[in-house]
Amino acid sequence: MSERQLLEVSGLSISAGERTLVSDLSFSMATGERIGLIGESGSGKSLTATALLGLLPEELSVSGTGRLHGFEHNLLTAPERAMAPLRGDEISMVFQEPLSALNPLMKIGAQVAEVLLIHRTLGTRAAARARAIELLASVQIPDPAQAANAYPHQLSGGQRQRVMIAMALANDPQLLLCDEPTTALDVTVQSQVLELISEQVTARGTGLLFITHDLAVVARMCTRVLVLNQGRIVEQGEIDTVFSAPNHPYTRALLAASDMSATDERGRLFTVATAGNYQPPALRAAAPEPVVAIPNPRPFAASFSTESSPTPTHRAIAPLITASNLSRSYHRARTSLLGPRPVVHALANIDFTVVPGERVGIVGESGSGKSTLLRILAGLDTPTGGDAVVAGTSIAGAREADLSALRSELQIIFQDPLGSLDPRMRVADIVAEPLLVPGQSLDAAARRATVLKMLNSVGLEPDSANRYPHQFSGGQRQRISIARALVNRPRILVADEPVSALDVSVRAQVLNLIADLVDEYALTLLLVSHDLSVIRHLCQRVIVMKDGRIVEAGDTEQIYINPAHPYTARLIASSLDLSEELARAH
Amino acid sequence: MLLRLGSNLARFVLSLCVATIAVFAMMRVLPGDPAVIAAGENASPQIVASLAHQFGTDRPLVVQYWDWFSGLWRGDFGISYVTRTDISPLVADKVQVSLILVTLAMALALAIAIPAGTIAAVRHNKPSGTLISALSQLGIAIPGFLLGIVLVSFFALRLGWLPANGWVAPVEGFSSFLSRLVLPVMALAGVQSAILVRYVRSAVLGIMHEDYLRTARAKGLSPLRALAKHGLRNAAIPVLTVTSVQFSALIIGAVVIERVFVIPGLGSMLLAAVGNRDLLTVQSVVMVLVAITLIVNLLVDMLYTILDPRIRAA
């Protein structure tokens, strides 16, 4: 191994019994190099990183060699005795979910200090604690001395991930493994955390192996990329080369599917199937200003008049959804015997209208109140102030019996397609359930026919009717949810983060399906997402929420190009876009 | 923190008050007027009436309840209808005996179950782990009194190492107090530890798959040190819940063991009082058992608060 070489992996294979999970993976990393490992769920990314750390579950077997500069053993087969001193000292890892990755019962400072004490970097508890506070300061945690005394649940998600980073870098490792470190974070926080990782590894000359499914993130963070598909590296090389002239069809498909600003001639996103016609962004984005360089991202403009501002349209057509002065507040547990219980305003004086046929996006970060708003509109929660009128039904003060009309007019698709489908019901019964509400007069045969027709329109085979949800992939499950939502022909479709739990390649397919069905059934769409690009692709109007209030609302494209509120501007600036990232790198 | 302590205490006092009403009402619903029972068969109505007047059972229920309730706070349970003696000192004696027995049994059960359950979890796919799980299954199936009889016939009758039964108060002779405790405590703890091993095992198994344990390994801790430093305190929370439930069950379960070993505890007192139709004594003993259960729950709630900062904040 040469002096500049940090890591040399060759022939890495991981298998569970007969099944091969990662096969014959080889790559090398120079000192201080930043390599991205991309691929979809199940492609073996996390297994690869875990194997390098020697922490694979016992039931998996591993073969191949992994050489780290200055370490005499093979990383993949070294005994625990040799690996333990290496972990947290020469190789560190930052995990995806910072809340569960930190011990909930131990103070932050002690958790950071621990890694210094284990490796005897510092001899005394007091010295380790003082250094821990310095480290917390270096990852820009406000008031680090106080944070050291806090427990993980008392910090925000972004701060917790900063703590994980401080812990991982405490002993100046040669190699930092990051496994989707920002996937669980809000957009604005994501960009800060990525910035922090970048700064820290650059300053220390740490080698970075960055695992992600997000191509824009990898374009920002890394110089080289390994594309993993079903346990094999299908392509590797410099980011610029791979992303602008992909050799392997899978890379091209991944690029096409994650590029939300590129659409085919029908205005639909590219999928794995249609990726052949896709032009990688680097070839398209020749113009100097990236924002302008994005091709028309409003595929529905033709079918909808959005030239005039939405207000006159609203006057002309009676709104389908009206929220007036809508509020929802919760009481928190008492913190003092005297004085009132603290009140949390999940929604505060929300006003908006949606006319029939409109596609409205609601964007905001966690805690902005967007899910509360959806629940109220769907009649699953009651407002504490104001009212919402949805398809003629007033929500405030309504009892369950009053909401039956609403239930047939409005249907929801939820974020997690597995959690929201009853695991013990067959798909046919799940999809048929909305047809069983009082007032529907279909007999069993007619219901069956309706269900099969619906399954067909969401692109599922007829034989899937007799199967159970767990027998489907994530994208197929979301198709089942969509079929269930649309089977009794509602006028309003509400989608709560419908693609955030899905892989990139599937995401495009599901978004296209929603777009097709919204057109076909003339639906009014209310789409909640934290991802601006999803909303920008599907919705002509957007509502931006923060802390339970609407900070800005209007035409999606206008707001995107010219945000009026600083929060919106920050949101747009923080969300990573593949073509912008590539343009930035040049 | 103080707020939580306050609200826990308030809930405890409230539960205690509600329990007095429930216990009192239950005793009134049971058939058998104490005065009729005390007077004996063929007694004249005058005698019954005078006894009822003497017991105070001819007064309105509310007055009777208040009388009993206000006495409770002073530690006065009243006078037995049957033996005509003060109930309180008797109960105080028996409570001590039962609490010593049950607390020691629970301590022993935990001392066995925590290491055994942890080993069963850590070595869950190895023979030793499976053996512990199998032994615990077997232990649950053996009733405590049977274990008690087996212990007596072996250690007391065959080997003659320990007395077969009886009770000596610690002040009367500490060594004979201890020697008489060993077998009943073992009999009670045997089944308890078998039950607790299962809970400790599943709690530790759950913890072993937690992300923060993986983080601890990634920091460079060995598997066992990671578990000891980051796992056990987290696993303690569900085990504590089960322990508190089991403690209440154990106090009631001790009734049978007290019979087997002829120990004058609350259980023996309760059985005797039921047999004699001594309603007020039954009522007092049941009240004491309820109060002990509530106190254990209060203590466990406070322990949660100490163990888990997330509860502290809420």
Summarize the structure.
Chain A has 586 residues and is α/β, with parallel strands linked by helices. In chain A, strand 6, helix 8 (187-204) and strand 7 form a beta-alpha-beta unit. The two termini of chain A are 31 Å apart.
Helix content of chain B: over 70%
The number of helical segments of chain A is 24
What strand order characterises the main sheet of chain A? Answer: 5-6-7-3-8-9
CATH superfamily (homologous) name of the largest domain in chain A? P-loop containing nucleotide triphosphate hydrolases
Q: What's the Cα radius of gyration of chain B?
A: 24 Å
Write down the secondary-structure element order of chain B: HHHHHHHHHHHHH
Number of strands of chain B: 0
If classified by CATH, what would the architecture of the largest domain in chain B be?
Orthogonal Bundle
Total strands of chain A: the figure is 19
Structural class of chain B: mainly alpha
Strand content of chain A: 15-25%
Q: Say which CATH homologous superfamily of the largest domain in chain B is assigned.
A: MetI-like
Radius of gyration of chain A: 26 Å
